[in-house]
Amino acid sequence: MDRSRTPHHPARRPQKILVIGAGVAGLSAAFRLQRAGYDVTVLERSAHVGGRMWTEEIDGYRVDTGAAMLPDSYHQMRRLIRDAGLAHEVGPSGDVYGFLRDGEVHRFGKRLPRDLLTTRLLSARSKTRLLRLAADTRRMGDRITFRDLTRAPEADESCVAYADRRLNQELFDYLIEPLSTNYYFAPPEELSMTHVYLAARSALGIGYFNSPQGMAFLPRGLARQLDVRHHTTVSAVEETKDAVTVGFTDHDGVERQETAAACVIAVPGPLVARIWPGLPAPMRAFLSRLRYSTCLHVSFGLSARPRESSMWIFVPRREYPGGLGVCLDHNRAPGRAPDGKGLITVYWPTYTSEALYDLPDEDVTARALHDIEQVDLFPGLARRIEMTSVSRCRPCVPATHPGSIAELTAGVRSLDRGSRVALAGDYFSFGSTNAALTSGEIAASRLAVTLDARRPPL
């Protein structure tokens, strides 16, 4: 948020702003608006803040139930952490990825060019073809960011079409597909190249940071400084010339209305279309068609740590039906497991997650153990398990299908920048906590400018 453009009027009574949704998008918007002098209340339907950025503490283990990775390229998040007084809670974390092929884990860290040159994961021909992806990513430059995708229409191309045109089958099988399955939990046949470009630019070959307290450190830290009402379900948002009225059911089940000078809607895309009748048609069409992945994953607390240095292992579907993601949480970030113990999490792609989603936890856990034993990454794993936890996330990550950037561009252009209602969500860019956070700050900045322009002179 450009605080130099954010008006602050301490001599006046603060204007009321309601923020719907206490995920990281809503909390970042609320924090910036409160810092700018507004009276802000956050309405959240669940029992906790953070949305997908949450952590459960179980028997001495910290299980991140949604988002897991914080690359050093998350500059907006770093700034917010500092401004919220939380910088002392974060530090460097794991940065090594592994890709499984023929029973061997091929590792890549911050020295990515060297690792790619020496790896046996890819043939010499594929390494040469990979230079094309590097060149295309470089040409994309700052037009594809966590802030805005509308300036990069060429990223709308499908993964399959791009691989056919610029890469080869081996790169599709051992790079494009596992990145799709592990970042979006969706098959590359349904995705555009957006996530691949952003991964190449902002996630691979760089450092990472995290908090020993778990991913929830940030939403918890922001919420401590804000007025958040839990168990509050919003049903309608109506804008008039002079105000915004929000209808909701409070924690006692009572239907109420509250009027404010402005409102930020920071909920999953399809829900926006249901609660805001005034949403412009092009943006309504984009959000109504927005598809989210489903994520189901199982964490195993271990009495001893496996001998593996990767923080995350990509298991391509060439190596195991459907593909898998295996996170070694004790390598990924400090504080996830007690000293000397381990924590690993098995992730499935969307279609497998959907098939298992409603099964009892014991059945889901048995399937996860079966799958991890089949890929034979950690022999004797079952004997070391002392804790299990099943996490479900639906909706999870918005998937950028081919053509979605064009739809997003039409939707963004239809929004009235002078409206008292602003939107925030990771659907404006790559589905990530940093994109969500950035959208919240943009919404806060826009509302501050709008309200200042409408404020009568003293």
UniProtKB/TrEMBL annotation:
Organism: Streptomyces alkaliterrae
Source species taxonomy: Bacteria, Bacillati, Actinomycetota, Actinomycetes, Kitasatosporales
GO MF, any single term: oxidoreductase activity
Annotated protein name in UniProt: FAD-dependent oxidoreductase
InterPro entries linked to this entry: Amino_oxidase, FAD/NAD-bd_sf, Zeta_carotene_desat/Oxidored
Span of domain Amine oxidase: 24-447
Domain of life per record: Bacteria
Pfam families to which the protein is assigned, alphabetical: Amino_oxidase
Coiled coil region boundaries: none
Gene3D superfamilies (UniProt xref): FAD/NAD(P)-binding domain (3.50.50.60), protoporphyrinogen ix oxidase, domain 3 (1.10.3110.10)
